[in-house]
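Support request, priority: normal
Reporter: lab tech (M.K.)
Component: structure prediction queue

Hi team, I submitted a job for Amino acid racemase from Flavobacterium arsenatis yesterday, and the status page still shows it as pending. I've pasted the exact input below so you can check whether something in the sequence is tripping the parser. The sequence length should be 357 residues. Please let me know if I need to resubmit or if it's stuck on your end.
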Amino acid sequence: MAFITLETEKLKKNYHYLNTFFSKHDIEWSIVTKMLCGNKKYLKELLDLGINQYSDSRITNLKMIKLLKEEAQTIYIKPPAKGVIEEVVTYADISMNTDFDTIRMLSEEALKQGKIHKIIIMIDLGELREGVMRDDFVDFYSTVFQMKNIEVVGIGTNLSCLYGILPNNDKLIQLCLYKQLIELKFNVDIPFISGGSSVTIPLIEQKLLPKDVNHFRVGETLFMGTDVYNNRKYEELENDIFKLYAEIIELYEKPLIPSGEMGLNLEGDTVTFDQENVGKTTYRAIIDVGLLDIDIKHFDPVDFAIKYAGATSDMVVLDLGENPKGYKVGDQIEFTMDYMGIVRIMNSKYIEKRVLN
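Reply from support: The job had stalled in the queue. We restarted it manually and it finished. Here are the results:
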């Protein structure tokens, strides 16, 4: 049976390193929990770390966090759809917003629930994902400022997720200037500039982060130990908190080239083969994980000698060559995964989740 593991000691190490790092630079941070897909077992491990603010883009995940730790502060980190307004006000203490009508609906719902709903207004600084356009921001804020039961606690931006536009000193200075402009024009205090995510951490190290940027939303660097900006791994952090194990369910020596008339495969592709391999054989292992669970581009065997031969919805076929390590049916093959690999596996109800303490 295939399963994914989370090693709690490695998670604790990464958390304490980052928490110390952010504290040293007077930055508050929120853990982005998207990678855990609301898994109760893994969320419990996260909630025990000590931080009290969690961010997610799925209401069901925030609901699970509140169920496990009612006093936890939660942030909904994408513009709310109209159909989830009631739940956003119920389960998110803060939400990130870009649309006037949406905020008006949040205001009306907050009034019904007898709450003050806090929001962070997002500004588009070039990534062209969510965010109010810069030329419209002051007018947008002036309208939102008048809404009942709505409190603007910050302004923020998102970079790198859609097109890979990297944060830099110039873009983040612009964000700080908008905060100063709003505070002066409307005589208000905006506590947070949420301008940071995992990709922005290197700017702190290089002393290129404007001092007014005081809030980060971090997931990938915590869970994977990656320097997203430079596409590398931090030596100080653990990089393999998650691992996937899949069982060999069949193993035979078979030809390298299939026989018969070639058509399209499951994904609609025509597969070609090197005809020089006609007549040659290899040991082929089938494991109990498939395309429903993961894209083969996003996970790699720890044993570098193992190669991919193909995949279908429920099975992946591996090429073991001459099988020098003597793998047999029932053995577990260990895999590492990138960000999207972990998210896909975590989202699969067919893969068991285990905690390694």
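Residues 242-356 form a domain with the Elongation Factor Tu (Ef-tu); domain 3 fold (CATH 2.40.30). The longest strand covers residues 242-255. Let us know if anything else looks off. Ticket resolved.
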